[in-house]
């Protein structure tokens, strides 16, 4: 069995990022920059006032001053400010030539064109001035290639002069739940049946990612039917199955993928939950066979499916975020598989919750973290720091 890290590396190596397209900024949020975003302008383009008040020369900071004009955002004052002169100025307006300091209006009184100090004088030149280029200069890379684009990044791109960005196109992802025992969520469920919870869980995990999801009703454990299903999906970027990944007589993902003309790249990872993951290829598609157990499907989707999507969409850093925190309890030594313990952060300490059974969703839902116990880790005493994945989904 291969390690989690090797499995991640091999899955990401299966396919290069997909083609790129130009999209409007709002559409770019939730994707990854396919090329460096370079500033087309300098921001601020000129020295600007950060406050409403009067633009003066610091050399005559004690006043009084005669007001010679006004500079507003979008309408600058074009003359020079000389000794003893001030320009009425507003937040975001260009600081006129000759002036170097803004005195806020709360600190002065004005009678006609005469302004006098009523509070303390400015202490240094440049007070309340935002200098040209203080945010970024034209030609600077403001967002590097491979960075995830959030709301703040598209705002920055807009400020840098862009109306569109180059990103990777959305992925075609097929989601197939397998198992004779599955019934649709909410439908009547006999005692030997089980609600198909993996489909909705995975669809929810992929929401917000650049994915066009084709979701199929549960497929029966029948080699011919599964083979046909695989064949029909070969034009997708990713085919995700759940269930049928193990070694039982009804676990048919491996033979069905082979019968459809696909290739198994590896099967089984030294991890718990989620051991029987199958990574493969079918035409241009990457196939990920996730285990049927709901917690196994969740953890393996977090560790392999989401990173694969991020990688194919150009992410420089596709793996899930790992953090560290002290464990609140002693943790026993573990075996040769990397364990992922359902846990909760309580007052900054990680405390395991419920049972770590790969079929039990209640403990997973109560958790907000997964403690990572790498293969063959020794006893860890309460108070020692351990790695964990925060659960945000
Ligand atoms: N002899 C062995 N048996 C098993 C092994 C093994 O190594 N040797 N591995 C175990 C491990 S670990 C896991 S994980 C499971 C994985 O099994 P499969 O991927 O083959 O999944 P199924 O057998 O089809 O189902 C397992 C379990 O999950 C339920 N299930 C399936 N699909 C869904 C769904 N869409 N939504 C909700 N629940 C689902 C299914 O009813 C079963 O209860 O194998 C162990 N066995
Ligand atoms: O590895 Mo399986 O996911 O324990 O149940």
From TrEMBL:
Q: Do the record's keywords include Cell membrane?
A: no
Which residues belong to any copy of the MoaB/Mog domain?
174-311
Biological role: Catalyzes the insertion of molybdate into adenylated molybdopterin with the concomitant release of AMP.
SMART domains, A to Z: MoCF_biosynth (SM00852)
Family of this protein: Belongs to the MoeA family.
What's one GO MF term for it? metal ion binding
| UniProt cross-references to SUPFAM superfamilies, sorted A to Z | MoeA C-terminal domain-like, MoeA N-terminal region -like, Molybdenum cofactor biosynthesis proteins
Which BP terms does GO give this entry?
Mo-molybdopterin cofactor biosynthetic process
Asked if the Swiss-Prot or TrEMBL record annotates the protein with the keyword Metal-binding, the reply is yes
Per the UniProt entry, the Enzyme Commission number(s) are: 2.10.1.1
Organism of provenance: Sphingorhabdus pulchriflava
Q: What is this protein called?
A: Molybdopterin molybdenumtransferase
Provide the Gene Ontology terms for cellular component.
cytosol
Organism lineage string: Bacteria, Pseudomonadati, Pseudomonadota, Alphaproteobacteria, Sphingomonadales
Question: What cofactors are annotated for this protein?
Answer: Mg(2+)
Q: Which UniProt keywords apply?
A: Magnesium, Metal-binding, Molybdenum, Molybdenum cofactor biosynthesis, Transferase
Which pathway does the protein contribute to?
A: Cofactor biosynthesis; molybdopterin biosynthesis
